[in-house]
Write a structure and sequence with these properties.
It is a single chain. The chain has about 160 residues and is mainly α. It has a single domain, classed as Winged helix-like DNA-binding domain superfamily/Winged helix DNA-binding domain (Arc Repressor Mutant, subunit A). Helices cover about 60% and strands about 5% of the residues. The chain has seven helices and three strands, in the order αααβααββαα. The chain has helices at about 5-10, 20-40, 50-60, 65-75, 80-90, 110-135, 140-155; strands at about 65, 95-100, 105-110. A three-stranded antiparallel β-sheet has the order 1-3-2. The longest helix is centred in the first third of the chain and has 24 residues, at about 20-40. The chain is globular, with a radius of gyration of 19 Å.
Amino acid sequence: MPGRLQQEIGKKRPFSSPEEEAALSLMRTADRLMGYCDSKLKSVALTSTQYNVLRILRGMSPEGISCQEITRRMITRDADLTRLLDRLECRGLIARQRQTGDRRVVHIQITPSGLEILKQLDDVMIELNRGIFGDFPRRQLADLIAILEKIRAHLEQPQVST
């Protein structure tokens, strides 16, 4: 009998390996999780990526940080961070400041309006996470976190050519 993922994606043949099934299951789960987050953020017209940037900036408030540092800290990569920042700036949620010592470096800061939107979302996101993970025992959550960390660590190592 086919597994649940196999049924969900309408795959007729079994997966070629448990590793393939695990990778596809993880990708499908991440996609569903992001979609669920995005649906909750629609009330304030933010995407999950924009929300992530605002959270990074709140953590660095009031100093702000460079675009390169935002990119390094993001949960998901965005190929066009400049355009994302443009949209947040147009809404008055962030401010950009060129550094006097090196005009190529731009520091990004969250504005009071950006902080207010995050304040509105804090309880929403806490409830979202509880709704998804609240029924899992702490031990299972710790195991899940450890497995995901191990996968990321493996993916971040330089790949050996064969």
